[in-house]
Amino acid sequence: MKYVSTRGDAPTLGFADVLLAGLATDGGLYVPASWPVLSPETIRGFAGRPYADVAYEVLKPFVGDEIAPTALRAMIHEAYATFRHPAVAPLVQIDDRHFVLELFHGPTLAFKDVAMQLLSRLMDHVLRERSRRATIVGATSGDTGGAAIAAFGGSERCDVFILFPKDRVSPVQQRQMTTFGSASVHPIAVEGTFDDCQAIVKAMFNDASFRAETALSGVNSINWARIMAQIVYYFTSAATLGAPDRPVSFTVPTGNFGDVFAGYAAKRMGLPIERLIIATNENDILERTMRTGRYEMNGVQATMSPSMDIEISSNFERLLFEAGGRDADNVVRMMQTLQQSRAFTVPPEAIEMIRAEFDAGRTDEAATADVIRRTLESTSYLLDPHTAVGVGVAEARLGLEPMITLGTAHPAKFPASVEKACGIHPPLPTNHTDLMERPEQFETVANDVAHVQDFIRSRSRAVRLGAAA
Ligand SMILES: Cc1ncc(COP(=O)(O)O)c(C=O)c1O
Ligand SMILES: N[C@@H](CCOP(=O)(O)O)C(=O)O
């Protein structure tokens, strides 16, 4: 499998290079040159099989022959052995035809673990084969950071630098990043929003000499391997409910558009998805874009679902590329216009295609709290605020087919908001109970690329010892 950039001016790469590259050198995002398709028989055969076995079948065509099958299989099995639930991503029924897909049974209690546990193993494998080190950078609105630190914290070959927006993540999310206690882990509080953190990360990737000097790699969903690993649970959950013979719909709490793009990828691979629904909180730029055809920034507000407080939704670029017939020049124009004027218009044919593939809705703060309270009353099931945004959007769109809302985080990551909504203070699972007592360690930096680069240069082993290991 080869990969091409959405901006059309970066080299075409194989899987291992895409894995290490993160962002393409032209500032674009890598996508597969073509979509592999799984037959209905293959999809039917996924029902009842262990998660790791299905993951191997789904991921194999994307990896190609760049990683030996036995090694790939072993890494997948190891990654999902870290999950507390034997099914890895179980379905829970909350209404007649409505299910929550629990994606939060990994080490940091959010769906990011599903991809990150595999990503760290894949990267270590490729770095070991190439005798290389890497400097990993990531921007987080709360969950990606903790998941990356848990997955890469023990790596011999990687140092991890995670930028998070100061005072805009929950205390549990912050402590998952700041109490890890390893010399190779560097949480950085940035005086700004998640979008500022993400802009700094992208600027560092676009600085060719810094990128080379630090052997920079990325773990955000700009990295194709993140999306790839997230495709798997669309297949496992749909097959459990009868796919391909019974189509299902998905509602996806959305911020950076990675998770819902993984659903789109599953559909391109042959999974019959009736409707794919984008759910936003009050930071509703994607819902507005769907309605108006204009992507228009108007400032990020802090909500009780902080991980979705995002306005520059990186993976929407991948969808624009697909919807515009893979016209990279058009993507470049839209991204330049966005940078200059904080808005762009999606071409009419592209928005038409997007509307044919996706639906969208928003759940405001009051409605999110109401969903948490009502769901607890009707089913004794406790939702986290991000999942509640999804459930709120899904409830208004239930049809005859099963609806799966992605359960993206454990409620205990957001105890204050959950308690305010329904009076219950969700306890952390027992293996996390000392989290709030451990000492914190992090750096606070200005919202400035040069400051962050100086900090990384001073701490990265790839800089100090060289990228060759
Ligand atoms: C708990 C949670 N839910 C939903 C999302 C949205 O996912 P995505 O950014 O892939 O759209 C995120 C992070 O972005 C998250 O951390
Ligand atoms: N919600 C995310 C934001 C970053 O998203 P990513 O999927 O691109 O890593 C977070 O929790 O950090």
From TrEMBL:
SUPFAM superfamilies: Tryptophan synthase beta subunit-like PLP-dependent enzymes. Signal peptide: none annotated. It catalyses: O-phospho-L-homoserine + H2O = L-threonine + phosphate. It comes from the Bacteria. One of its GO terms (molecular function) is threonine synthase activity. Keywords: Amino-acid biosynthesis, Lyase, Pyridoxal phosphate, Threonine biosynthesis. One of its GO terms (biological process) is threonine biosynthetic process. Residues 2-80 form the Threonine synthase N-terminal domain. Gene3D superfamilies: 3.40.50.1100, Threonine synthase, N-terminal domain. The modification N6-(pyridoxal phosphate)lysine is found at K112. Residues 98-340 form the Tryptophan synthase beta chain-like PALP domain. InterPro entries: Ser/Thr_deHydtase_PyrdxlP-BS (IPR000634), Thr_synth_N (IPR029144), Thr_synth_N_sf (IPR037158), Thr_synthase-like (IPR004450), Threonine_Synthase (IPR051166), TrpB-like_PALP (IPR001926), TrpB-like_PALP_sf (IPR036052). Its cofactor is pyridoxal 5'-phosphate. Pathway: Amino-acid biosynthesis; L-threonine biosynthesis; L-threonine from L-aspartate: step 5/5. It is an enzyme of class 4 (lyase). Belongs to the threonine synthase family. This is Threonine synthase. The lineage of its organism: Bacteria, Pseudomonadati, Pseudomonadota, Alphaproteobacteria, Hyphomicrobiales.
